[in-house]
Write a structure and sequence with these properties.
Mean pLDDT: 90
Shape: elongated
Structural class: mainly beta
């Protein structure tokens, strides 16, 4: 028993002489995960592509620079953001009330234009777009892009009289650039 007391005393002295256990320094730092969501895109069709009265057998063109006749859209979104422009174009206008009677329409590589605020509007736009392919442009300083389109209808000599129409669609999407 005496041995146990001596051993316990020696152990207690060692613990006291050794002092408290050494504290380990611990540090930390925090960061945040951040993201900025750009404003969503908005597109508005402002003006229909208007050919007016056409004569059977005689083609009629509307230029992209003709105010009130050329088709027009306004795209609004995040300033300077890159986006794709993709046209879905009809190959004919259909007689209203008779989907079997069509009048051919065509669009050439220079039939569309755009203005990002750096140009002079419809009469002196920032650039030309090929409506037959995918385009890539940037929204201007005001976060806007205006797009115009013209085209040519080619009525047949035997074209049925009446009102013809077809959808011309412009789809836009951010590229992420």
């Amino acid at each position: 028993m005496f041995r146990k007391q001596i051993f316990a005393s020696i152990l207690a002295m060692v613990v006291l002489l050794a002092g408290p256990p050494e504290a380990v320094a611990q540090e930390s730092a925090t960061i945040q995960a951040l993201a900025t969501v750009i404003s969503s895109l908005s597109i508005t069709g402002n003006t229909n592509l208007q050919f007016g009265t056409v004569i059977p057998g005689i083609s009629k063109a509307v230029d992209k620079s003709e105010p009130g006749f050329a088709g027009e859209w306004t795209v609004t979104g995040s300033v300077g953001a890159e986006l794709t422009l993709d046209f879905t174009l009809p190959d004919s206008l259909l007689l209203m009330g008779d989907s079997t009677s069509g009048m051919p329409i065509n669009f050439v590589a220079t039939d569309a234009s755009f203005d990002d605020g750096a140009g002079g509007g419809q009469l002196a736009p920032s650039g030309v777009l090929d409506p037959n392919g995918l385009g890539t442009e940037r929204l201007g300083a005001g976060g806007q892009l205006t797009v115009w389109i013209g085209g040519t209808v080619n009525p047949r000599i035997s074209q049925t009289g009446g009102d013809y129409a077809a959808d011309v669609i412009l789809s836009v999407a951010y590229t992420g650039n």
